[in-house]
């Protein structure tokens, strides 16, 4: 949610409803735009650049000229035709940053020209995207508009799963699996900024160094070490586990939790089905939960984004947490961006640049 400027609300008075969408004076909007789509379900090679009609902002929506779009692991599943509840396989892209260039019939003009981040159900791999106005947030002061393209999906997922149901207490331990992922890098930093002690799993020494710099207290290389043994040997009992691995880790995640602990499953990269021994739940009064951001109803996302602006954006603005852009590639190199995520050598976020005026940054 974008805080309205003084004296303005986002929804115009009833008399203005139904008017055609308004655009600012200056650069005229094109009728068509470039977008990356998956031509059919398949590997990265199915991603192609196409020309599409410019989206029109409907009631309650704003049109954003995209500067950068975040690439998320869910995009890879959607491209492969393997994401339940996703938009059409063609409409990839769950988050962008950019500038508001037009507003729908009932959306106030004061959004026009604002630099924003946006959470989307799809369609972000494009030069323009129409967004529910309540799913916009300002670019945090001090964060570049490019880096802002990778903030929303991870921040919304981490905040809604770790902090909205009841936050981990300062001094308690949080176990984050995949700490160098886009999601993990946000979770590690946010928890560390709140005084929570963070243990995290990663798959390589360079990822270990990366998460240490982000504030992790204990780093476990899951290719060489068993995280449950490592925690037990140090007497660490996490209050919360944030899991993206699923089946392979389910029983060990339950076993390591402290009494009253919470296992939050937000991904299942090793599979979604596993036998479960319920005994640890009873013995330790555990909670097993999870959620999928894209599947949440709009009113829940409205609340999550309002919370982010209030509680998380100030942490970006003070530098307590930072964006973690690993690479930013032009839109036409979307297939390469997907391969980067598939190979999993990246640390943090991979972005696509939609604005041809901006030079690409090389992969670091
Ligand atoms: N539920 C939701 O609302 C929601 C929203 C966004 C994302 N997610 C999920 O969150 C996960 C991360 O998403 P992302 O976009 O940030 O992806 P990403 O950057 O591609 O990260 C995937 C990570 O998983 C790690 N990993 C793979 N196997 C592992 C294992 N056995 N143990 C520990 N880590 C392992 C990889 O590291 P190594 O290769 O080094 O092991 C990599 O860092 C995905 O599963 C995604 O579906 C869920």
Automatic annotation (TrEMBL):
Keyword annotations of the record: NADP, Oxidoreductase
Domain Enoyl reductase (ER): 42-352
Sequence segments annotated as region (Disordered): 1-30
Pfam families named among the record's database cross-references: ADH_N (PF08240), ADH_zinc_N (PF00107)
UniProt cross-references to PANTHER family, sorted A to Z: OS02G0805600 PROTEIN (PTHR48106:SF8), QUINONE OXIDOREDUCTASE PIG3-RELATED (PTHR48106)
Protein name (Swiss-Prot/TrEMBL): NAD(P)H-quinone oxidoreductase
